[in-house]
Amino acid sequence: MTRYYVSHYFDFKNIGIFLLVSLIGLIAVLAIVLITAKLQVHRRLNYEGLDECNVAEITRRHRFREIGMIESFYEMTFSSTSVLLFLSLYYIIDARIPQAFFYWSKYQDFILLLFLILSVFFTGWLDRFLVPLEYLPPDQKSSVRLVSSFYIILILMYIKFIYDDSNYDALILYFVSLAIGRFVYFDFTVEDFISTISKLLKNLYLLILMGCYSGFVCWFGFHVGFLLTSNGVIVSTLLAHLFMDASIFVLDRTRLIRFVL
Fold first, then answer.
1. Alpha helix positions (H), the chain
2. pLDDT in tens, 200-253
3. For the whole model, what pTM was predicted?
4. How many CA atoms lie within 13 A of 76 on its CB side?
5. DSSP notation for 202-229
6. Confidence band of 63 (pLDDT split at 50, 70, 90)
7. CB-side exposure of 231: number of CA atoms within 13 Å?
8. Where is the secretion signal located (predicted)?
9. Beta carbons of 98 and 65 less than 8 angstroms apart
């Protein structure tokens, strides 16, 4: 069975086609982001009486905002991939390695917590070394990762209800608890709560774009038979996100975005 998966996923023709589709989907998403941002600044410049200096300043600030929106989407993808990587490992150990049952049943909660901590470090590696995100401040990264946690919950719920798979019930409860913990914690204040809600709503567009992008890539993968349900839907979803990361890397190396900003 392992040999079958290796030969299936390392078919370079299928890899090339799937990477191309992932890249096209990424370009479409970023085009939506850039067009929306440019229309906003164009409307502001047309409806406000501004002198030449103000126009230049607004244009400059808006360019940094566009870069920030793109890097926020990249961070959303990296964060989601990192969590899916360790959730897939959690699934494989739990469902496919019966020899580990005794230790797994005893320590699985601690192992899951360890995996989530490792996912934070892996996300940091991706956004520093794979594609450096130079314009994204720490507080925005934190907000994006909060949105990413809701995205993971949606994926797990989709698998549960669409594929009628109850193996992820504990994970759904765990992530819901983590998400709630970002809003309500031991020494939180009303101001902290409102600030967190505000940042979440401000970045809600990332959840919509990410859902559309990953939904399209996963649909295509399952439709053409490149992604398989037999090795676990969560694992196939991870593979789709790895191709999405590769698309970001390719697009970043081509420096195509710099020509349209």
1. 2-9, 12-47, 52-96, 101-125, 138-162, 169-183, 190-202, 204-224, 233-254, 256-260
2. 889 999 999 999 999 999 999 999 999 998 888 899 999 999 999 999 999 998
3. 0.90
4. 27
5. HTHHHHHHHHHHHHHHHHHHHHHTSS-S
6. confident
7. 20
8. none
9. no
